[in-house]
Design a protein that fits this description.
The protein is mainly beta. The protein has a domain of about 35 residues. Helices cover about 5% and strands about 40% of the residues. The strands form 6 sheets. Strands 20, 21, 22, 23, 24, 25 and 26 form a 7-stranded mixed β-sheet that branches. Strands 3-2-1-27 form a 4-stranded antiparallel β-sheet, with no helix packed on it. A hairpin with a 5-residue loop joins strand 14 and strand 15.
């Protein structure tokens, strides 16, 4: 074969699914790069800090590997999107890190204490990038939202009084149709309009309905996940109930209220029995759904959980947890290791190196003399 770019797409896809970040062959030469860019599919990796070796461990398929990132010392993952990680240190400093090329974008100011969720929308090199923090103090009925846009050096903070207690869950917030959606610990949904700064909260979103089993309403929710599925218009949620046997998928339904037309749409969770050819990757730092590459991967939910050294998924087909290496299968998750600070990472496509200006959150100040 004269040129690697002439490889069949199926073979390129297979090769690309086995390599990650700096190991990808697209950096070797132009023809190999051309072959890589013909198909950008990349399998997500589950990434977390492995204290025993003081390195970061990646799980992909049924294999794992370690990478050392000195830049991430004393830092933990808050959010993972677009191939970038939003990291925070114990002193509340924030920065972005790209594990594919070791590039860093530092934020100019620290975030306040006790923010349950800190996340971002749009890549940090984009002028539209915005970092958002949300907290719900337990001593009062309020939601506090702070925002930092690219190019700015000060957080904008707004406190919204609420009629009832809204305790924020660890589900990753989602930007949907220009609004930020997030969940509380009992499955209620809040919607924040980033343009007019309006916050709307829908209560009793998981109210017992005829279609939903009664046991869902007799158990507390232990794990919360909110996400979008590629190719779908609606938002979805996955709730793991307290006994860990009930893993349920819901679609968020937004319907006009019957009486007051001008009031915000009522949001309710509708039970989804089957996700068809989709596969879900869930964690507190990143959750998303996409079309499965193979039929055997469809109708599965990959959690940030391990059995031994193997990633665990939940099959909606048989209602059981399974390990990828095949040595575990059970209808509950007792005894599995849950990785609360792990994230699903999908390497961004290889592009030309970012200019230094793109890796600066703020542009250098220019005085009146142009210096």
């Amino acid at each position: 074969m004269g040129n690697w770019a002439d490889l069949p797409p199926e073979l390129i896809n297979l090769i690309l699914s086995k390599v990650f970040a700096k190991d990808r062959f697209s950096l070797v030469c132009r023809s190999w790069n051309a072959a890589a860019t013909t198909n950008c599919y990349s399998v997500p990796c589950l990434m977390y800090y492995y204290r025993r070796t003081r390195t970061w461990k990646f799980h992909r398929h049924n294999s794992s590997f370690f990478i050392s990132f000195p830049q991430l010392k004393d830092a933990e993952i808050h959010c993972s999107k677009y191939g970038w990680l939003l990291m925070a240190r114990y002193d509340n400093t924030l920065f972005f890190f790209n594990p594919s090329n070791n590039q860093t974008v530092k934020l100019p100011c620290r975030i306040g204490f006790a923010y349950t969720k800190v996340f971002f929308f749009h890549p940090p090199t984009s002028p539209d990038c915005t970092v958002v923090g949300i907290k719900t103090p337990i001593w009062k009925q309020a939601v506090v939202i702070c925002m930092l846009k690219r190019g700015e050096s000060q957080w904008e903070s707004i406190e919204y009084p609420t009629k009832t207690q809204f305790l924020l869950s660890h589900a990753p917030p989602v930007l949907h149709r220009g609004q930020i959606y997030f969940l509380d610990v009992i499955g209620n949904v809040a919607r924040f309009n980033v343009i007019n700064r309006r916050l709307v909260i829908s209560e009793k979103c998981l109210r017992q309905q005829q279609r939903q089993p009664r046991e869902l309403h007799d158990n507390k929710i232990k794990e919360h996940y909110l996400f979008k599925v590629k190719g779908e218009e609606a938002l979805f949620g996955v709730f793991v109930f307290h006994d860990e046997r009930n893993v349920k998928v819901f679609m968020l339904s937004e319907k006009p209220r019957e009486v007051k037309v001008l009031m915000p749409k009522k949001m309710k969770w509708e039970l989804v029995e089957d996700i068809g050819d989709k596969v879900l990757y869930l964690s507190h730092a990143s959750s998303f759904g996409c079309t499965a590459r193979t039929k055997i991967m469809a109708n599965r939910i990959y959690f940030p959980k391990l059995h031994g050294d193997s990633v665990v998924f939940y099959s909606l087909s048989d209602g059981k947890y399974h390990s990828l290496n095949g040595d575990y299968s059970d209808n509950n998750a007792y005894g599995l290791k849950r990785l609360d600070f792990a994230a699903w990472v999908t390497p961004a496509p290889i592009t030309t190196s970012k200019l230094a200006a793109e890796l600066r959150w703020r542009r250098p100040q220019v005085d009146q003399h142009g210096n």
